[in-house]
Amino acid sequence: MAVERKRIEIPEGLKVKEVVEEIKEFPFDISPMYEGERIRKEDMFVELGGPGIKAKFELVIALPMDQVNDGKVTIVGPDLDEMEEGKSYPYAMIYYVAGKMIETDLEPVIERRNHDFQNYLEGYMHLNQRYDIWCRISKSAIKKGLKSLAQIAKATMMLYKNELPFIEKIEAIYITDEALVEKLLKEVAMPIYEERDKRVEMLHDEDVDVFYSCTLCQSFAPTNVCIISPDRPSLCGAMTWFDGRAAAKVDPEGPVREVQKGECLDPIKGEYAGINEFAARESGGEYTRVCLHSFFDAPHTSCGCFETIGFYIPEVDGIGFVHRGFTGTAPNGLTFSTMAGQTGGGKQMVGFLGVGIAYFRSKKFLQADGGWYRVVWMAKELKERVKDFIPEDMRDKIATEEDAKTLDELKEFLKRVNHPVVTGVVRPVDGKKITEGWKEEVEEVKEEVKEEVKEEVPATAPAAPTPAAPAVTPTAMPTIQLPTIQLPQPQAIPAGIKLIIKDAKITIDKVIIRKAEKGEK
Amino acid sequence: MTVIAVTGKGGTGKTLISALLIYFISKDGYRVLAVDADPDSNLPDALGVEVSSTLGDVREVFQVSRDKIGTMDKEQWLEGKIYAEAVHEFEHYDLLVMGRPEGEGCYCFVNALLRNILKRLVRHYDYVIVDSEAGLELFSRKTIEVADYVVIVTDMSKKGLETARRIKALSEELNLKFKDMFLIGNRISSKEAEDKIKEFAKLEGFKLLEVLPYDEAVVDLDVRGEPIVNLPEDSEVYKRMRRVVDRFLNIRILDGVVEWQRGLRLKSF
After folding, report:
1. Which residues of chain A lie closer than 8 angstroms to B59, CB-CB?
2. Partners of A256 in the beta sheet?
């Protein structure tokens, strides 16, 4: 399945120029200050690639050490001294790289730097990447003595070796022959790009040692710490693990940083020692654990920018999702904006989870809690958008606002389609049955204790407001909204007593609010 | 690189002033980037040019396309689109229209990318002239790094002066370190009003660059919907703005900035 990596063949009869000797001096200045330099049409000598040219690409190919001629440049097709001023030409830049640490996974990381390094060259502009590249060489660069693309290639390779020391050997092939560029684009470059994009799907949390953290939005939520892993892209939708890797490499001290994942404490929930440590530190102690693929246990926090919100519906023991832009009301009677208030702010609020749309695509989507098999309701527009990721046997079992607007309608629907939550969800990741299914009507408050899963609750109540809070304020107004989310909530407990609730489902039949007598807590 | 922000109460003539600054400074041979930062954009019309795409448009395309970008570098993708579509090349200057403000969703990431991209872009111009909205949001949000000079435009009204005062106060509050803040009075039709503005400038600590009269030639163009750069050379506003630019460029020399670039450029004519 992998595209073979080998040296490209140069057909007979084409003009080939080979440069092996070292070039010590360049007729152009080299410095990061030239980044962003824009060469205007009237200032350009020639354009290479760009919107007017169909065939253009840049590609890095990792090869074994003995197949790379270090420092060699090959130009196929017309060089600068044969080009007409003001015209545009087809352009391909291929780099062979070799080194102990180099493997095909590093190719895109190395390839991206071509853009950065070529922009350090005075009088040379590089835009875009892959098959979109657009380069221009300025008239003043020619005036200063630039004669051949080999000089550009040599300077670029020098920068590569200086900045990326794990590249032990690098060779460049620059092609300006239209037919060859088109052929290689189709037969070599595109298949490799596609293979890389597919890699996104194939790379998983267990395959890498580092995840990335992003604190770009900490100005809005100071305790929010986003962890981006291959199986969990950012909730704001902006970043994948690959984006994180690129950002951290370019600016290691910036808002996106590498985090060693450390020992895996729970592969199903996605809990890692290194991540816990990092989260405890960066959240200022607000929380000490993060489970990447769990809804109920130490869920990932949000700043407020989530693309969707997952909410727990205890009446059916299932999870619902709404997306930003959903203007209606979910079966729990709440809207996106109301729930957003509970979900954001950098706090772990069990019962709500901010999620990016890309996470629905993940193989580990909420796997600790049954993934798709625990999802009972989704806003129609959202469901449409991600329907390709819903397992076939669940597609018709998840209700939308067209199927159910109220809890009763939802219960009816789920019973009718025989949704797993009715009889008990078996989570696919390990085949374990994690919920009991619906019980008959509850007459009194009942507490169910299960052996498998244990949830320890600290003795002191958290300072954060809980969904139940509004209803138990002693000075509540006459009209009180019964909380629709009921979860094991730690109440204020006298010191010295530890409350341990094991896998409880607490349903409250009556909430009695009365004014506290004098002396009562 | 010098950034000049033109601001002031709506309707006082910011776009007129911006357009003429761009026109004169770019004709003098400097590399100019004109930035229209007013969501209710008129700068292209004032300059007599058309734009096909704005920064806001590119940003929105990014927001909806980002999932499909695959493993490609998002910043490079965005940068390419901005250079190709949002930065418009005209004979003497380049023009970037910021366009519509943010929509729904999270803009943290894309704005972070845009800041990096714009930072690299503006470095390569001698002058960046920004037609701002009546405030300093562009700078307080650090979309463009702090301006070197701020030109506040006011008319005869008390409201215009009040806005000028507020902008100055805001800049001090936000600790935006401008090299200087200038005032230009526009559409000043009486000696009394002129004196009032001079007094105001002195009191509030503005350098008064110029007082422009109510000019029939300007009104004429406005009514006909013609670009302001078509202003006849003998009109008062044209003459005075030409003087402003000369004076301004001199102030820069006096500031200690060596204008050798100008010398080099003029030599090539």
Report:
1. none
2. A214
Compute the 3-state secondary structure of chain B and give helix, strand, coil in percent, each to the nearest 5.
50, 15, 30
Contacting residues of B for A112, CB less than 8 Å apart? 73, 76
Closest to A279 (Cα-Cα) out of A237, A236, A227: A227
Question: Is residue B269 assigned to a domain?
Answer: no
pLDDT tens for chain A, residues 1 to 521: 578 999 999 999 999 999 998 888 999 999 999 998 889 888 999 999 999 999 999 999 999 999 999 999 999 999 999 999 999 999 999 999 999 988 888 898 899 899 999 999 999 999 999 999 999 999 999 999 999 999 999 999 999 999 999 999 999 999 999 999 999 999 999 999 999 888 777 889 999 999 999 877 766 667 777 899 999 988 887 788 888 887 787 777 888 889 999 999 999 999 999 999 998 988 888 889 999 999 999 988 887 778 899 999 999 999 999 998 899 999 999 999 889 888 877 788 889 998 888 899 889 999 999 999 999 999 999 999 899 999 999 999 999 999 999 999 999 999 999 999 999 999 988 999 888 888 765 444 444 444 444 444 443 434 333 343 333 333 434 444 444 444 444 444 444 555 566 666 666 676 666 666 655 55
Among the listed residues A142, A172, A156, the one whose alpha carbon sits nearest the alpha carbon of residue A18: A172
Contact status, residue A410 vs residue A376, Cβ threshold 8 Å: yes
- Could you give the ipTM of this predicted complex? 0.77
Contacts of B124 (CB under 8 A, 6+ apart): A36, A37, A38, B1, B31
- Rg (Cα) of chain A, in Å, rounded? 29
Domain boundary among A366, A400, A433: A433
Indicate the burial class of B167 (C-beta count within 10 angstroms; 0-12, 13-18, 19 or more). buried
Q: Kindly report the pTM of this predicted structure.
A: 0.75
Residue B90 included in any domain: yes
The total of structural domains in chain A comes to: 3
The C-alpha atoms of residue A158 and residue A70 are separated, in whole angstroms, by 11
Residue A73: beta bridge partners?
Answer: A19, A172
Nearest residue on chain B to A134, alpha-carbon basis? B80
Q: Is A234 exposed, middle or buried (0-12, 13-18, 19+ CB in 10 A)?
A: buried
Inter-chain residue contact B79 with A127, CB threshold 8 Å: yes
Strand segments, DSSP code E, in chain B are 2-8, 32-36, 87-89, 93-97, 127-131, 149-154, 180-188, 207-213
Instruction: For residue A65, give the CATH number of its domain.
Output: 3.30.1650.10
SS3 state at B153: strand
Q: How many domains are contained in chain B?
A: 1
Q: Tell me the CATH number at B187.
A: 3.40.50.300
From B6, B42, B1, B2, select the one nearest B181 (Cα to Cα).
B6
Tell me which residue in B105, B110, B120 faces A35 most closely, judged by beta carbons.
Answer: B120
Shortest distance, CA B126 to any CA of chain A (angstroms): 12
Q: Are residues A280 and A373 in the same domain?
A: yes
Among B52, B64, B76, which residue's Cα sits nearest to residue A133?
B76
